[in-house]
Structures are given as C-alpha cells and as structure tokens.
TrEMBL record, chain A:
It comes from Endobacterium cereale. Residues 416-530 form the Glucose-methanol-choline oxidoreductase C-terminal domain. Belongs to the GMC oxidoreductase family. Residues 191-326 form the Glucose-methanol-choline oxidoreductase N-terminal domain. One of its GO terms (molecular function) is flavin adenine dinucleotide binding. This is Choline dehydrogenase. It comes from the Bacteria. InterPro entries: FAD/NAD-bd_sf, GMC_OxRdtase_N, GMC_OxRtase_C, P2Ox-like.
UniProtKB/TrEMBL annotation, chain B:
This is Dehydrogenase. PROSITE patterns: TAT. Pfam families: FAD-SLDH.
Length: 544, 181
C-alpha cells in the first residue's frame, strides 16, 4: 500500500533511471513512491523559456530550466564562488544536469551507443582501468529492453550497427533516421579516409509515433528540449506512472538516508520548499538522483554505523568520477555542409574508440554536430560591419560552411577523481558538491598522438580553410563512476545488481555504477543497469 | 475538453468554435498591432516609432515587422539618450542621397555615435536581441533576420519545417538564390 509517507518501493529522483524502475515495480504489483527535488513543469513552459532566451545564451543547455532555490543545479554564467558545483584539480568537472521532475533527459541529445564487449574488459584486454563485474552478453538483453522501453531507433543493417562485436539479439524498434545533407557529405568525406560514419542509435521516434509520442519532424531542438516529445525524455513517463498508481512528491529534496540497527535502510528524509522536514519509510529504496547527486547524498548521510556515509565502507563513494572528456574542432569549409537539418546528433564514427592502442592511450569517438549554425555565426558575421546584401550573404555562407566536429574520449576510473562535500552550503543549508578532477595522461596522450591528428585530418578532408580547436577538455555530461560496481565489497560500492554491498535493501543504479565508460554516450547503459536492478528488486520483493 | 468527453458532438462543436474564436482573436490582435503598433508599448511615442521603422527600412532591405520594431525602439529610447536626434540625422543622410537601399548611403554615416547606432539597429533586427550578453533584451526569436537568410533550407530550431523523416534533400550550393524576405 502506498501512502504519502510510505510505500513498498521508495525511489529518490524521477529521471530516466528512476522512472524505468518505478514502472517495473508498479507492473509487478508493488506500491511506489517517488521523491523529486525539483518542480514539475509543462513542456510548453520549457519551450517558451528557450525561445525567450537571448540568442547569445541559447547554447547554454540549462537556460530553459532555471533552477529552484531548494534544488540547485548548475546554471551557466554563475561566478565560480557562487556556483553549485565546486571544483579543484587541473580540469573542471563542469557538468550540467536538471533537477526537475523528469531529470536531465529533458535536455539530452538522445544518442544511445551500447558499450562493446571489449569496453567492459579493458583491464583484462589492455591492462588499464577496471573491468566490469559481468560481461557484455549479460548486459545485452537489458540493452534490448532499454531500446524498446525508450524507443531507440537505429539501422537494421548489421554492418551499420554498434557494436560490431558481441550479440545483438533483437532489432531496433524503429529504423534509423535519415541523414541531413551535411551528414551525407561528412560520411562521404570520412569514407575517403577509411572511417565509417554510421547512423546514431537514438531515443527519437523515427518515421512513426512510438509509446504515445509523435514522430520526429526535424525541429533541430533536441538539446535543450524537444518541443513535441518525439525524443524520449523521462517527463513523458510521469503521467503513465501516476495512472499506474505511483505517488509523486515534487519540490522535495532528500537530504538523509536513515539506517536501522541491522544496517538496512529504514527511511529517507526530505525538505520541502518551506524547509520543513519529512520522513518516508519503505521496504526497498532506490537512489536515482544521478551519478553526482547520489554520492553527495550518501556522503551527507552519516550515522554511527556508517561514519563515512551510507554504502561507503569501501571508501569508494564519490571516487572514480568519470565523463567523456571532449574537444571540438570548429571547421570553416569552402563548400557548404548545412548543419541543422534533422536532429542535432545523427551520426558518428565509433570504430576509432577500439583497438590495441588502448593499452597506451584512450580511444575517441568522433561526431558531426548537426545543430543549425545561425546562433553560432550571427554575432561574428555582424561584427564584420557588413550591411545589406553582403551581410545576408555572409550569414548564409557562415551558416552553411561552418561545422563542429567533436572528439569524445574514454577516461579511466581513478579514485583520485573524487566528489566530496564542500564547506559551501546551498539554499537549504546542505553542502554543495566539490569535485577534484584530472582527465589524466591516458586521455591527454590520446589527444596528442591520436584524436587530435585524426580530427585535423578529417577537417582537412572536409576542405577546411580554418580550424579552431577548443583549448581544453569539455565535459560531455555523462556522469559516471561515483558509486562504482564490483564483486569485491572492499573496493566497490554496489554489486552486479546495483545493490549497495553494505545495505541489502538499497539500490543505486545508473551511471555511478559504471566501472568503465568507453567513449559513447552512456545513458543507455545506465538504463540497462536500472532494468537489471529492477529485476533483482522484483525477485527480492518476492522473497520478502 | 475532458469534461465534455461523454458528448463527442458537443466536444467537436466546442473545440471548433474555440478554434475559430481564438483564430479571430489572433487575427484581430495581429491586425491591430501591425496597424497601430503603439497600442502595446505606450512608452515610445508614435512619431518616434514610425521614424524608427522608417530608419530600419533604410538600414535593412527587407520587410520588417512593426511589432518587433516597437520593442527595439522602446529599448533604444532607454539606451540611447539622443535616440530621436540620431533617427533624424541618419534618415536625413539617406534622404540626401535619395537612398533606396542601405548600400546607397551607409558609407556616408559618419564614424562614431551615429555609425555605431546604425550598426546596433541592424544587430537588433538580425539577432533579435539587444546584445550578445546573457542579460540581453529579447525582441524576437523566430523573426530574427538571421533565420530568414537560411529559411529555404534550415529550420528555426524548435519550429519544424519538414515532416517525419522528410529532411533528406540535396546539398544547396552557395550560388542558390537568397530567400526573399
Ligand atoms: C546537454 C546534455 C546532453 C546529453 N546528451 C546525452 C546523449 O545524447 N546521450 C546520453 O546517453 N546521455 C546524454 N546526456 C546525459 C543524460 O542526460 C544523463 O545521463 C541522464 O539523464 C541520467 O539519468 P538519471 O536518471 O541517472 O539522472 P537525471 O536525469 O539527472 O535525474 C535525476 C533526478 O533526481 C532528482 N534529484 C537529484 N537530487 C535529488 C534529491 N536530493 N532528492 C530528490 N530528488 C533528487 C533530480 O531532480 C532529477 O530529477 C546529456 C546530458 C546533457 C546535460
Ligand atoms: S529533431 Fe525536433 S522533433 Fe526531432 S527529436 Fe529533435 S527536437 Fe524533437
């Protein structure tokens, strides 16, 4: 039975990881209560926020999602000292995520690359990083379920699918989306260099409605919001969950996880937007606050039995923070490419992420960004002081003949890349997260000897007359590692089902559990882990 | 709508009437706004506003929406102390040259305050904003002229121009004609 203070399953966070588990538990007949830090807003409001934002900040993916005082998330333009995320170390772990009902898939691009069998065995094969606690074949059925749950489209031709190794036991539920003229041209160009630019598997409805959502019609606005919900985002599932009986508490920030004398989780405590505290009890608990907020919450929740925080007897909570460090090449070409027709990311070169070189340095995935270029070039064209016909032609030329190529790198799990609690406090008086981060020599070496030369080679083949390379590694917003999975409870936080080693009724699925993240966008893997955890929870409830 | 779901006919009639009504309101609103842009923004006097549209039409060889112009003029009044004077001065230069297009007279606008203001007016129409900054005033998104220069091939992000999977098309050469706007 579900009440406003108790349920069989209590899920903290309503992002994609939280909602897929919620649905699984509801379908299995269990009561579900979800606690969400942020507000619930309509799609129309988000779209209006975006349209009404100045052209110069439209690239800021958070601009359409002003954070609420009680549920801060990173916002562009903050002064470092006031910012929600505090940094130390040579590189900034400068992530964005959304603390709203529906979470960060509101503004994800929907790119959904599976890991390869090799990605999950990098220590065995290449002697670096950590192996996963299970193999690709174990994860494969969960990938299939994820592809059908989220509505991930992709090519039917096996040679165009990723990964090339390992099993694919079922086709994508929808065909690949067509390429834009720029993508067709880019594919032809890189082919001359021997690279295959293949269709991205993406959580976007291709040519047909799916799951009650319409077909993608090429609004080219997937980041920061799909106006028609053709791209999957977790907000689209919330009504369905409520119809199935879930209780959803919003504007409710969980700040403490409480344990019993047996060190099981007894309850979670949250502040509402008036700073009033409430307690929610349950049988099973899921922390689905994302790979950064989960470790923060665990570290905040200390008690006599767990002096270093919940689930942290290994001292690994908050360590091994990973992402896909990225560098971009902004290329000016002689001939037009015309980025910006169709979805914002629609293809990629994945094969460059694999190879025996991984014993020496990281691999990289290259993608052609298909964002319409007007907002990137208009100010530069205007600054040239042109008027009339010359100005029109210059804007048109720069829109057609500039493109962004991004190289996203594989980082290794490193315990020194660590989230801790800052002395600085947020509006509720809770500590802000502080992250020490260094992309490491593995990534830097790749950039020097591998990904930068390939990027330049591609740019030249595109007919570049100018190449601007981003001066530092940017974050890809794929938050991984902070509650790492392993078989050995002394050096990992969760087991193969994302169950905390220390607490038998606590599940911490999602990016935090990933032991290695390779180069491809990782939400599909986070969701696959969530479904696997959900199966384990259903079994556990059966035995309960 | 949900309340009437037991009565499909009623629902249909209501929703059609609702649509017609809102359509009529929208049309009336658009007409009123374009015939008499001052109704929305009383802060800028009508004379200055129509002078601003006259100046804008001289600086930009395209059709311009007076509602957007009214918003730009309102901001310009606040940001440029000598707004009215600069309008008159630039218009006078254009008239003296009997200018039909911006190319006919732009070079005659003296460097400095006047030239900067002329560039700002062009900036506002093309970017839809008062500046590049985070705190810029937004005059329009979808009518910013930057998007008109590519409207034959690119969507304005968040407004689709094609149907499901219908965006495959040949790669337009730069020699393709500029859209008319
Ligand atoms: C611009 C951008 C583009 C991206 N593109 C891609 C892509 O193309 N492909 C890809 O694979 N990934 C992409 N990502 C990453 C993707 O968005 C995340 O991996 C994914 O959303 C993580 O899902 P989650 O459910 O773990 O967390 P989230 O979606 O972040 O959800 C967590 C939820 O928990 C809530 N919460 C947090 N703290 C608390 C608390 N204390 N109490 C209660 N509730 C709380 C939050 O409000 C939120 O609703 C992108 C991210 C960004 C920012
Ligand atoms: S291209 Fe448009 S319709 Fe398609 S997912 Fe992106 S925003 Fe949505």
């Amino acid at each position: 039975m579900v009440t406003k203070t108790s349920a069989d399953v209590v899920i903290v966070g309503t992002g994609v990881v939280g909602v897929v588990i919620a649905e699984q538990m509801l379908d299995a007949g269990h009561s579900v209560l979800m606690i969400e830090a942020g507000p619930r807003v309509s799609r129309a409001e988000v779209v209006e926020n975006w349209r009404n934002s100045p052209l110069g900040v439209k690239g800021d993916t958070s601009v359409a999602y002003p954070s609420r005082p009680w549920a801060p998330h990173p916002m562009g333009g903050e002064k470092p000292e006031d910012a929600y995320l505090q940094f130390s170390g040579p590189d900034a772990y400068d992530q964005t995520f959304i603390r709203y009902a529906g979470g960060s898939t509101w503004h994800w691009a929907g790119t959904s690359w599976r890991l390869t069998p090799e990605d999950m065995r990098i220590n065995s094969l290449y002697g670096v990083g950590r192996d996963w606690a299970f193999d690709y074949e174990t994860l494969e059925p969960y990938y299939v379920r994820t592809e059908h749950k989220l509505g991930i489209c992709g090519p039917a031709d096996r040679t165009q699918q990723w990964p090339q190794t390992g099993t694919r036991s079922a086709p994508y539920p929808m065909p690949a989306l067509p390429f834009s003229p720029g993508e067709v041209k880019f594919t032809e160009v890189v082919k001359t260099l021997g690279y295959n630019n293949i269709p991205v598997a993406q959580a976007r409805n291709s040519g047909m409605p799916y799951d009650g959502r319409p077909a993608c019609c090429g609004n080219n606005n997937c980041v920061p919001v799909c106006p028609v919900a053709a791209k999957y985002d977790a907000e689209t599932a919330l009504h369905r969950l409520e119809k199935k009986g879930a209780t959803l508490l919003v504007d409710s920030v969980v700040y403490k996880v409480e344990t019993s004398a047996q060190n099981k989780i007894e309850a979670v405590h949250f502040y509402d937007q008036h700073k009033q505290s409430h307690r929610i009890s349950g049988k099973l608990f899921v922390l689905a606050c994302n790979g950064l907020e989960n470790p923060k919450l665990l570290l905040m929740s200390t008690d006599d039995r767990n002096p270093n925080g919940i689930a942290n007897s290994s001292d690994q909570v908050g360590r091994n923070m990973m992402d896909h460090p990225a560098r971009s090449f902004t290329v000016t070409t002689k001939e037009p490419f015309w980025s910006g027709i169709g979805p914002v990311v629609n293809s990629g070169i994945m094969e460059t992420s694999q190879g025996s070189f991984r014993s020496e340095h990281a691999g990289a995935y290259f993608r052609y960004n298909n964002f319409a270029r007007n907002r990137f070039v208009t100010f530069a064209a205007l600054k040239k002081g042109l008027v009339g016909k010359a100005l029109d032609e210059e804007i048109r030329r720069m829109t057609a003949c500039t493109a962004d190529i991004v190289a996203a790198h594989e980082i290794l799990a490193d315990p020194n890349n660590r989230l801790t609690l800052s002395d600085k406090k947020d509006w509720l008086g809770l500590p802000k997260p502080s992250i020490h981060y260094d992309v490491g020599d593995y990534v830097r070496k790749c950039w020097e000897v591998y990904s930068q030369p390939i990027g330049k080679q591609i740019a030249e083949a595109m007919g570049a007359t100018d190449i601007k390379i981003s001066p530092k590694f940017n974050n890809s917003k794929h938050i991984m590692g902070g509650t790492i999975m392993g078989k050995d409870a002394s050096n990992s936080v969760v087991d193969v089902d994302c169950r905390a080693h220390d607490h038998e009724n606590l599940f911490i699925p999602g990016g935090g559990a990933m032991a290695a993240g390779a180069c491809g966008n990782s939400t599909i893997t986070m969701v696959a882990l969530a479904l696997k955890a959900g199966d384990a929870m259903v079994d556990q409830m059966r035995g309960a | 709508m949900t309340r009437q779901s037991n009565d499909p006919n009623g629902k249909l009639v209501m929703s059609r009437r609702g649509m017609l009504l809102s359509g009529a309101t929208l049309l009336a609103g658009t007409l009123a706004a374009s015939l008499c842009p001052t109704i929305s923004l009383a802060a800028v006097d009508t004379g200055a506003q129509s002078r601003f549209m006259q100046l804008s039409s001289l600086l930009i060889n395209h059709q311009l929406n007076p509602d957007v112009g009214a918003r730009i003029a309102e901001t310009a009044t606040g940001e440029y102390k000598n707004f009215a004077g600069m309008l008159d001065a630039i218009i006078a230069i254009a008239e003296q040259k009997q200018a039909k297009t911006v190319e006919d007279f732009f070079g005659d606008i003296p460097e400095g305050e006047l030239r900067d203001f002329a560039h700002w007016v062009i900036f506002a129409w093309y970017s839809g904003c008062s500046s590049e900054k985070r705190n810029a005033k937004v005059f329009t998104y979808e009518e910013a002229l930057t998007f008109k220069t590519t409207s034959d091939i690119l969507t304005i992000p968040s407004y689709g121009i094609s149907g499901p999977n219908l965006w495959t098309r040949p790669n337009l050469p730069l020699s393709a004609p500029m859209p008319t706007f």
